[in-house]
Amino acid sequence: MVWDLRSARALGVAVALSMGTASFGATVVDFEDVGASLPSDGKFYYEGADGAGGFTSRGVHFRNQFSESPFGDFWDGWAYSQVNDTTTQGLVNQYAAIPGSGVGSSATYGVAYPGSGTTGGLSLVDLPSPKTVAGAWFTNTTWAALAMRNGEGGFAPVDPFGGDEPDWLLLTILGFDALGDPTGSVEFYLADYRFEDNSQDYIVEDWEWVDLTGLGEVSRLDFVMTGSDVSVFDFGEGPVEFLDIPSYFALDDLVIVPEPGSGALVAAGLGLLAARRRRAG
Ligand SMILES: [Ca+2]
Ligand SMILES: [Ca+2]
Ligand SMILES: [Ca+2]
């Protein structure tokens, strides 16, 4: 695919097209506002080590949690990052997206660790008021992509994806309304080797647009990751499946529709652009 590499600028054009006026713009949560402070303390990412509990980009809040312990530092939820390492596999490179930059070669993108063996609650995204989210661009992190491509040793080894094995890694995006009630869910496969024809098997390594209009008007988004490669543990409250593949994904350019009910228009505009790109490509 060609169109999924296009920039936030192209997105802006699509949104303007669908609205009929450029001044009636959607909010594009691109992380470049918060990214302007990087590097910070010599790091090209921010994971909440100051205990702030999250950060806000373009008015949208991304939760995180950071704690220090004798066993090392623990982080979950969201980080923003400008890390461009596409080759280092492992925890030391946990804040890198596999394309090596944000959408449209932008500097900054978001990285989430929604937890392994959870049903959500860690990688929360909160909107300032209920809105339709047109969609966002998603991809794998470097660590997860390389773990699937090459396999990985350690406590719960992962075999390389390939052959006839029907491996998969799935991101489920959950919507919630202002009362906290679920509005729906959208599934996006970050890797899918379940195809009978193995030439169709894939690991996502470019930014891909995911339409989220099906969630309706939401106040909150949450994220859950599941996959084929799991270990089962029981800590006394019943068996829980923990993902062996590093449980991370990356996100950039979350597009929020300005007015209720115009989500379909934005989606149509983006779809039109996608069709044009496909034909042109
Ligand atoms: Ca960006
Ligand atoms: Ca496997
Ligand atoms: Ca296959």
Fold and architecture overview:
- This protein is an alpha+beta fold and 281 residues long.
- The chain has one domain: Jelly Rolls, CATH 2.60.120.
- The chain is built from 4 helices and 15 strands.
- The strands form 2 sheets. Strands 4-5-6-15-7 form a 5-stranded antiparallel β-barrel. Strands 13-14 form a two-stranded antiparallel sheet.
- A hairpin with a 5-residue loop joins strand 8 and strand 9 (182-192).
- Helix 1 (8-19) packs across helix 4.
- The longest helix is centred in the last third of the chain and has 18 residues, at 263-280.
- It is globular, with a radius of gyration of 18 Å.
- It starts with 7 loop residues before the first helix and ends with a helix.
- Residues 1-10 and 12-24 have low confidence and may be disordered.
- One calcium ion (CA) binds next to loops.
